[in-house]
Amino acid sequence: MRFRDRRQAGRKLAERLREPPRGERLRNPVVLALPRGGAPVADEVAQALQVPLDVLVARKIGAPFNPELGVGALAGDDPPLYDEGALALLDLTPAQLAPRAREERTELRRREQLYRRGRPSADLRDRTVIVVDDGLATGVTARAALRSVRHREPARVILAVPVCSREAAAAVRPEVDDLVCLDQPDPFQAVGLWYEDFAQVRDDEVIDVLRASLVPR
Q1: Which residue, among 114, 122, 134, has the nearest Cα to 191 in the 3D structure?
Q2: Strands 128-132 and 66-75, bridge-based pairing
Q3: Is the pTM of this model over 0.70?
Q4: Are strands 178-183 and 156-163 parallel, antiparallel or unpaired?
Q5: What 3-state class would DSSP assign to 135?
Q6: What's the CA gap between 103 and 115, in Å, rounded?
Q7: Are 145 and 42 in contact (CB under 8 A)?
Q8: For residue 1, which of 161, 217, 206, 175 has the smallest C-alpha distance?
Q9: pLDDT tens-place string over residues 180-217
Q10: Strands of the chain, DSSP E
Q11: Pair 201, 36: CB distance under 8 Å
Q12: Residues contacting 170, CB < 8 A, separation 6+
């Protein structure tokens, strides 16, 4: 399955989320976007469900020789989460990645301030939280985000993505009450291959999405 763009993917996700019996279990829901790529997807989901939208900033920790190769991730105030298998395969340690983790923590804080503009984060206690991204390759960033959400005492956590690898699906399932993934192609290769338009989402687009959304409560 290929999607035209992130917004079409978001509309398809919303359709799946509303199907019974899943749709009947969405008690006091809130949608959390993983920016930047997850923002337009999550916007469509939140609009279709008519629920509040907020962001959850998570940052990938890349390998020293290839920043795009995620071997760990950060979210919220939690310590870094590392993919132990990837570290062993690449002969890396958390200590070696500490400088990179500090850089990503600084960037995480910058983006939180940029996107929120002083607005408080949504209260997740006793709510159904739907975490949305545009796709999962390894799942390590989503896992860090989901663990951060759990610490905020939601009633239920759903991860909703248009496309993901089978390996990522297996990695995130223990972190959620429900995983909604429209397609798990094999071979997977990269998220962008499953979109006709996978243009980079800019910071100002994320800000515009949040500005126009329902205010978290």
Answers
A1: 134
A2: unpaired
A3: yes
A4: parallel
A5: coil
A6: 18
A7: no
A8: 161
A9: 999 999 999 999 999 999 999 999 999 999 998 865 54
A10: 30-33, 53-55, 58-63, 66-75, 81-82, 128-132, 156-163, 178-183
A11: yes
A12: none
The Cβ-side half-sphere exposure at 36, using a 13 Å CA radius, reads 14
**Polymer length of the chain:** 217
At 70, give phi and psi (nearest 5°). -75, 120
Largest CA distance in the chain: 47
DSSP 8-state symbol, 5: S
Considering Cα of 84, then 88, then 92, then 95, what sign does the dihedral take?
A: positive
For 153, phi and psi rounded to 5 degrees? 60, 50
Look up residue 180 and give its two tokens.
């909604």
89 three-class SS? helix
Q: Are 169 and 181 in contact (CB under 8 A)?
A: yes
The mean pLDDT of the chain is: 94
Strands 156-163 and 128-132, sheet pairing: parallel
What pLDDT is recorded for position 116? 87
